[in-house]
Each structure stands twice: as C-alpha cells, then as structure tokens.
Amino acid sequence: MENDGKRRAFLKVLGLGSVTLGGAGYTLMADATQEPSKAKPHYGMIFDQNKCVGCTDCEVACKKVNAVPAGQARLFVENKTDPATPMEKKYVRVSCQQCEDAPCVKVCPSKACHRDSKTGIVTMNPDDCIACKYCIVACPYDVRFINHKTKAAENCNFCLNTNLAKGKEPGCVEACKYKALVFGDLNDENSYINQILHVKDSVRMKPTYGTKPSLRYIPVVKVGV
Amino acid sequence: MNGAINFTHGFSHGVEWGWPIAVYLLLAGISGGALIVALMVRYYKKQHEDTPLLKAASLVSFATIAFGMVFLVGDLEKPLYFWKILINYNFTSVMSIGVLAISIYIPLTLVMCLYMFEKEISIVLAKKNTLVSYFAMIMSILTRFRPLIEVLSVVFAVIICAYTGFLISVLVRFPILNTAILPALFVVSGLSAGTASASMVASWLFKEDTHSSDLKTLHTIEWPVMAIEIMLIAMLFVSLLVGNEFQKTTTVAFQSGVYANLFWFGVMGLGFGIPLVLNFALGKKIASSHIAFYLSGMASVVGVLCLRMFIIYAGQTFGI
Ligand code: SF4
Ligand code: SF4
Ligand code: SF4
Asked: Is A40 on the interface with B (CB under 8 A)?
C-alpha cells in the first residue's frame, strides 16, 4: 500500500513533465503529408488511461466527422472500472489498432481493405467491398463492422479521408478535452507522440497476435497488477 | 505489464459467419469427398467403364458445389459485387485462393458430368441437329483429355475440401478454429459425407445394387475414415484442453449448452452412433437392409452438417 502511493506520486510527476515537454515539441502531422521527401510516415495514436475520464466526446466526434450511421461506431470507450474499487475509474479505447501486419488487409479477397499507399494507414475502399465479413472475423481485436448505409466493412482509419485530408487532427483527438489521445507520426523523431513514448511506458493491446498495432496504451499502473 | 489494460467489447455481433457458410462448407465437403472416393475406387479397381458410382459422384460433386456457391454468394451483403473478387485478386487471402480453385473445380466437375452423361445429353440434343454435332465435336476433344481431367479433378477436390478448413483456421481470434487440425478434419469429414452421398445417389438414381462390389468397397473404407474423423476431433479437443488459458475456456463448447448438444447428439450420436448401431448392433439382417443403407447414409451427412455447424457457431462464439 505504501509502495502504491509512492508509485502514483512518481507517475504524476512524469505525467506533468510530459505535458510541458509536449507543448514545446508539438508538430502537426499535416507537415509530414506535405513533404514527400521525408521517410514514409507511420501514424500512431496513444490512449492514456490516466487521463481519460470516459466522457465519450471522442465517440460523438468520430460519428459526426465520419458520418457513421446511428447505432454503429468506429470507436467505443469501454468502462473497465473494477467493481471492487468503484472509485478508481478505468476506461479503455476500443477501435482499430492500425496493425502494421494487418490480418484484415491480408484476408480481404477484393483488396477493398488495404493500406493507403501514401500514409500507410489501414483503410477501406467501400466500392470494392463485397461485404463477405472475412476481415471482421479475421481481425483479432474485433473492431470492424459492416456499415449499414454503405454496406461495406469499416474501421477507424485515423480520419484519413475526412479530417486528415483537410490537414486536421483526427476527430476524436480534436474532441478530447483531457488530452487522453495523442496522434502523430511514429517515424518522426521529433513528433509529440514520440516524445511521450520516450518518457512513458506504453503497451500494445494483445501483442501475442504479432500484428504490431500502431495504437499505444498508457495504462493506469498499480502495484500488484 | 501486458495484462494491465485490455478491452473486451467488440464490434461484431456474435456469429458473423452463420449457417449459410456452414451449409456451404458441408456442400463443398460432399462435392470434393464424393469425387475423391469415386475416382480412387476407379483407379484402385482399374475400371474402364463408367460405373454407377462414378456417375453418381460426378453428378453429386457438380450439383453440390454449384448449390454451395448459391449459399456462399447469398451470404454476402453485396452479392452482386461478387465479381470484384476476380478483378481485385488478393493472393494472401485464402478466400481468393479458394475462389480461384473453385473456378477451376466447377468446370472440372461439369466436364466429369459430360463424360458420364454424354449419351443422355446427345439424346436430348438430338432434336436440334446442329447442336448435336457441336456437342459431338466438343466431346471428341474432351475425351482425349479424360485421364488428365480425372487426375486434376482429384487434385482440386482435395484442394476444395482443404481450403474450406484453411479459410476458417486463419481466424486467430477463435481458438476452436485457429488450429492446424481443422483442414485435415474438413478433408476427412468431407470424404465421409461424400462417400455416403455418392453411394445413396448411385443406388437411388442409377440403380446400383447396395451390395455391389463398389458400394461394398466404400462400405469397408467408411469405418476407417470415421475412425480417423473421431481421432481428429479428439485431437482438436485435447489440444484445446491442454492449451493456454483461452483455449481451455473454449472446451465448455463441448461440455454444456446448445453447442455441446449439437456436438454430442448431432456429430457423435447421429453422425457416428446411428451408422454404427445400424450396421453392427442390430444383426446382419437389418445391417444389409435398404432402410439401414439409406438411414445410415443420411445420418452420416447430417452428422457432418452438425460438425460444420458446431465448428462455425461454437468457434465464433468462443473468441478471445
Ligand atoms: S485492428 Fe483489426 S481492423 Fe485494425 S488493422 Fe488490425 S486487423 Fe485490421
Ligand atoms: S467484408 Fe469487404 S473489406 Fe472485409 S474482407 Fe470482405 S470484401 Fe474485404
Ligand atoms: S481517428 Fe477518426 S475514425 Fe478513428 S476513432 Fe478517431 S475520429 Fe474515429
């Protein structure tokens, strides 16, 4: 217990540190797309469980930005609060992990699910999708669905053809008041996302699948976990 | 630290691939299995005439795969876009590979049917003289390739049976599906359903005596095939039982609930139990009756359907 408290204090200091650090090194991903001379970008995202309060502003923004039909979602914030400790709220982001080695891309028979050639983002060409649902059952994270309107499979594509195309940050990142989400180019040494990853421990979801997700999670750490 | 954070909420709604896929997997298995056993019997017995068994098997294999395609395409949310697979071919996708194999296999089974029913087709076409002569011309060319077509048919029949197993064994989220045993199990259960279907059609449509030498041969290989099938199912179960934490939790599928009933009553009881009882437990007289012949054949086919249903439904229900 004593240990627990110390650890938390330590993490708090780290958290504050990264905020100041981040302010200085903040770069928008739009730069990378405008300069073809740079190495190919590898976009990633961080979900910081320490900061997320479960307000679901990101969910709402994503639906609006990407015109996701009612009752469906590309993004879901799951409440993972332990019933034994109801005061310690815990939330987790459920969305496409943007795998580097993506099973959905591998199994799609019509190449509708593909990796965007410029950005490397896993995305969809709804016109080519025959809605066989192979990608949905093949995705180890179960984060794909058939859009009722387009009748095509869909996943979070970092707002590739919506916000990103306009040079803006993804809708969910923009909407997060608590800065629990950070988006950026993992191949850019100076990007804010890399600065955070340098100072904080992060994990990938279900790494044993070997899909190399580009989404990183900063968990709330308690001794004994 | 990896267990520190996780999510359990998914976007799919339970079983995404439902019964049409299970039926397709059954039909593809019957199609491949029937052709494999009939041609194997032909090679083994060095037959030159077209036996009722081969006729039945050719007809069964063409009809079931064609019918299976209806289920496969019908299960797509956008069935009219099916052709996109052929244009945007993806070599890393088992489905693409399967579609390619099917587009070779269906014509092969069709040609096998043409060989078998050349006379009948000629009679039907006889009213139109030009058509008959075209048909005769095509057949004279096709006949030259018959040995090759037969070998290719066996090869592709095996590929069809096996690919349906690979199709779902690549789904890493589902421990019951994600095993190397599945393709083998699909080939073997395809063989048993194919054997049963081809023998029934041979006797029913082509008046083959149920005690003819061909059907007797099939009857004798039926039991070893069934034994291998049971062994593979046992291997699947044991591999889950001794596996990691997630694999272990899936063994419930065999132990309680709807799926366990489907497995024990459908796969084991109907598929294996009924044929065994009919053939060995009730005496020689019943074992050699017509009723027993058809009943045990149907039971085998329904048992294999139950196996496919069990694998598809239980497999997708117990995800990680
Ligand atoms: S998380 Fe699923 S949908 Fe996203 S890239 Fe990986 S396999 Fe594809
Ligand atoms: S549902 Fe669409 S995107 Fe998914 S594998 Fe099938 S064709 Fe590809
Ligand atoms: S990046 Fe865009 S598509 Fe993905 S969850 Fe955020 S808002 Fe939705």
From this structure: no
Q: CA–CA separation, B80 vs B65, rounded Å?
A: 19
pLDDT at A38: 61
> Which structure tokens are listed for A103?
């099973």
Q: What pLDDT score does A225 carry?
A: 47
Query: Hey, which residues 144-203 in chain A have their CB within 8 Å of chain B?
Result: 144-146, 151-152, 201, 203
Closest Cα to residue A150, out of B241, B289, B81, B304?
A: B81
Phi, psi torsion values for A219, nearest 5 degrees: -80, 155
**Mean pLDDT for the stretch of residues B92-114:** 96
Q: Is the CB of A121 under 6 A from ligand 3?
A: no
Q: What are phi and psi of A207, to 5 degrees?
A: -65, -20
Fill in the amino acid letter for B240.
Answer: L
pTM for the whole thing? 0.87
Give A144's contacts in chain B (Cβ within 8 Å).
11-12
Whether residues B84 and A110 touch (CB distance < 8 A) is answered with yes
Inter-residue contact B52 to B185 (CB < 8 Å): no
Residue A55 CA neighbour count, 13 Å, CB half: 14
CA-closest residue to ligand 2 atom 7: A129
| Ligand 1 centroid – CA B10 distance (Å) | 12
Distances (CA, A) of B74 to A76, B19, B79, B125: 31, 11, 6, 32
Kindly determine whether residue B77 and residue A94, on different chains, have CB atoms separated by under 8 Å: no
Query: Which tens digit of pLDDT belongs to each residue from A70-120?
Result: 999 999 999 999 889 888 889 999 999 999 999 999 999 999 999 999 999
Give residue A37's pLDDT: 54
Chain segment B293-304, per-residue pLDDT in tens: 999 999 999 999
Does B93 contact A221 at a Cβ distance shorter than 8 Å? no
From residue B67, how far is each of A38, A97, A220, B22, B70 by CA, in Å?
53, 38, 54, 13, 5
Give the Cα separation of B78 and B8 in Å (integer).
29
Report the distance separating Cα A45 and Cα A163, nearest Å. Answer: 15
Tell me which chain A residue has its CA closest to the CA of residue B10.
A142
Instruction: Check if A77 has its Cβ closer than 6 Å to any atom of ligand 3.
Output: no
As a whole number of angstroms, the distance between CA A52 and CA B320 comes to 25
**Residue A79 burial by Cβ neighbours in a 10 Å radius (0-12, 13-18, 19+):** exposed
pLDDT band per the 50, 70, 90 thresholds, residue A19: very low
Token pair for B205: 């449509």
Instruction: Among B77, B316, B320, select the one facing A137 at the smallest CB separation.
Output: B316
Torsion sign across C-alpha atoms B51, B52, B55, B57: negative
pLDDT band, very low/low/confident/very high, at B79 (cuts 50, 70, 90): confident
